[in-house]
Amino acid sequence: QVRLVESGGGSVQAGGSLRLSCEASGYTSSAYCMGWFRQAPGKEREGVAYTDGDGNRIRYADSVKGRFTISKDNAKNTLYLQMNSLKPEDGGMYYCAADHYRCLSSNRYNYDYWGQGTQVTVSS
Asked: Taking a C-beta distance cutoff of 8 angstroms, is the pair 23, 115 a contact?
């Protein structure tokens, strides 16, 4: 059974940093493409960053390019999202997602497995 558990969320001031983690279990991490998505209250869930199974191919949403870094440690079955220079509009619930076949997709419906999310709040 595939399970994803996010952690690392919290409250920071604008300009601050957070590092999110997503620990995966129930499958071999290197075989799955993964991504980070976020959802603010009243808004659609949107993609933030994506990586392939090996963590070699990476893609970012334009809104986070240059500020966020996605990485994958397959030895630890863990996905990370380093978030720097945070803005109030970066706030929301952050989810990690995994899929065996579709890599680097910003379409949330292409991911079969999801975590429960971790909350990020950025104050101005």
From this structure: no
116 φψ region: left (φ > 0), alpha (ψ -120 to 50), beta (else): alpha
Looking at residue 81, the DSSP 8-state letter turns out to be E
Reading the block at residue 48, the tokens are 């933030």
- Average pLDDT of the chain is 95
| Tens-place pLDDT, residues 45-79 | 999 999 999 989 999 999 999 999 999 999 999 99
The shares of helix, strand and coil residues in the chain, as percent rounded to the nearest 5, are: 5, 50, 45
Cα–Cα distance measured from residue 80 to residue 123, given in angstroms and rounded to the nearest whole number: 22
pLDDT at position 29: 67
Are the C-beta atoms of 55 and 74 separated by less than 8 Å? yes
